[in-house]
Design goal:
Blueprint lengths: L2 H6 L1 H28 L9 H26 L4 H24 L5 H25 L8 H30 L5 H22 L20 H17 L1 H31 L6 H33 L1 H14 L1 H6 L3 H29 L2 H29 L8 H17 L10
Helix pairs in contact: 2-6, 2-7, 3-5, 3-8, 3-14, 4-5, 4-7, 5-14, 6-7, 6-10, 6-13, 8-14, 9-10, 9-11, 9-13, 9-14, 9-15, 10-11, 10-13, 11-13, 11-15
């Protein structure tokens, strides 16, 4: 089934509407947070603070992760989507109130952690339910559309947020403008909740005979079952680790870009220019993600999933060398575009590989393991980069380390003898 046919698919298109509306809203919310925390005139941005910001954002993903699979394999995923989006919409009104008053510290951190923790449940429910709506042969294309379209819409939403903030910046003080964006994001999540009512209660799982009571201890037992299932499917496990390492490298490069735009390419005393430059670089990354999705199904058809993943990760290893050679606006954009382009090929192909190996009984808990590993790699990549980067962001060490880590995964973890080239 091709992209056009999938767009016309009556059930799959409803899932896309929920995912894409929510992720466009994610972009608006994240742009407001970045403006408030990292690009405020009265706040200095250094590598460690920015890396800790990534860690704080991803902390709830890792904490909630062990229990996401338990919930999604035992209750209606449609109900989980509806109530989670409603709760997230209400939570953002609290975030807006704190930002409006200029409140930072523990209070803001807690409500932001709740917002991102809820987001983890939503994205996992969407991923786990996708395989029940399309046939196995269409999984690569379906993942390419769902994940890539969502990633692109996060970037578009962020750009929209920056644009709206620029329009109202002259009419309100900075914190009030950021609060307005967060209120807008709250309305966006309400729309996502309403869109989820178009899906039947158990249309995206779990199946009736799998539903049972979830408990605190069951979350850890299910995580263990998820790891056990992956131990029986080593190619899926290797693909998850490869994807995690790639995302960790992307985080390190994103941190580099943030510091270069904030403190080197633009005047640090004019953080608004840095925010615009950072948004510009992310736009090219978003274009790379979008185009990468179209290539993935053809690459898989031509080379097979395993070999295609090996090829695109090797090509990803070459991309950071541009930024290592020179830290300029051009090399940053080139690195952002190409690394995201090949990385998205890796992500959507591996998602389809994992989904094809797992029956629905284990799907929620295996994707919970997937999320925890990816988020751990993202936090690690950010913290390692923070230790290596100067405040200016000018360094060849981080891009070289990212390139080396990708190459190591290709030659060791994804080598032909243990990661077979089959379709």
């Amino acid at each position: 089934m091709g992209f056009i046919e999938l767009l016309k698919h009556p059930r799959f298109s409803r899932l896309l509407a929920i995912r894409w509306s929510g992720q466009a809203t994610d972009g608006i919310f994240q742009s407001a947070l970045a403006s408030f925390v990292l690009f405020s005139p009265d706040r200095q941005t250094n590598a460690l603070n920015a890396a800790l910001g990534f860690a704080v954002v991803l902390l709830p993903y890792s904490i909630v992760g062990p229990f996401v699979g338990t919930v999604l394999d035992r209750i209606s995923r449609q109900r989980a989507l509806f109530f989670s989006n409603l709760l997230r919409s209400a939570n953002l009104l609290i975030v807006a109130l704190l930002v409006f008053s200029g409140t930072t510290g523990a209070a803001l951190t807690v409500v932001v952690l709740i917002a991102f923790g809820i987001n983890r449940l939503i994205l996992a429910a969407l991923s786990a339910g996708l395989a029940l709506l399309v046939d196995t042969q269409s999984l690569v294309s379906a993942n390419a559309m769902a994940v890539t379209g969502g990633s692109v819409l996060v970037v578009i939403g962020a750009g929209l947020g920056v644009g709206i903030r620029a329009l109202v910046d002259s009419l309100a003080i900075a914190d009030h403008a950021d609060a307005l964006l967060i209120v807008l994001a709250s309305m966006g999540y309400l729309v996502s909740a309403l869109l989820s009512t178009r899906i039947k209660k158990f249309e995206i799982g779990p199946q009736q005979h799998e539903i049972g009571a979830a408990s605190f201890s069951q979350g850890f037992l299910d995580m263990r079952e998820g790891f056990g299932f992956l131990a029986l499917h080593s190619d899926a496990a290797r693909g998850i680790i490869a994807t995690a390492v790639h995302r960790g490298g992307l985080t390190a490069l994103t941190l580099t870009a943030l510091l270069l735009e904030r403190n080197t390419f633009n005047d640090p005393a004019l953080p608004e220019n840095g925010l615009k430059g950072f948004g510009f670089a992310l736009s090219f990354a978003g274009i790379g993600v979008f185009l990468g999705a179209f290539l993935a199904p053809y690459g898989v058809e031509r080379f097979g999933r395993h070999r295609w993943m090996r090829i695109v990760l090797f090509l990803s290893a070459l991309c950071p060398l541009f930024l290592a050679a020179a830290q300029t606006q051009l090399t940053l954009i080139l690195t952002a575009f190409l690394t995201s382009f090949f990385g998205q090929n890796l992500k959507v192909t591996n998602d389809a590989l994992v989904q094809s190996k797992i029956d629905d009984y284990f799907r929620g808990r295996v994707f919970a393991v997937y999320d925890v590993l990816v988020n751990g790699a993202i936090v690690s990549g950010g913290l390692i980069a923070a230790l290596l980067l100067p405040q200016s962001g000018e360094s060849s060490i981080v891009p070289l380390c990212v390139s080396a880590s990708y190459l190591l995964i290709v030659v060791r973890l994804l080598r032909r003898s243990v990661f077979p080239p089959v379709k």
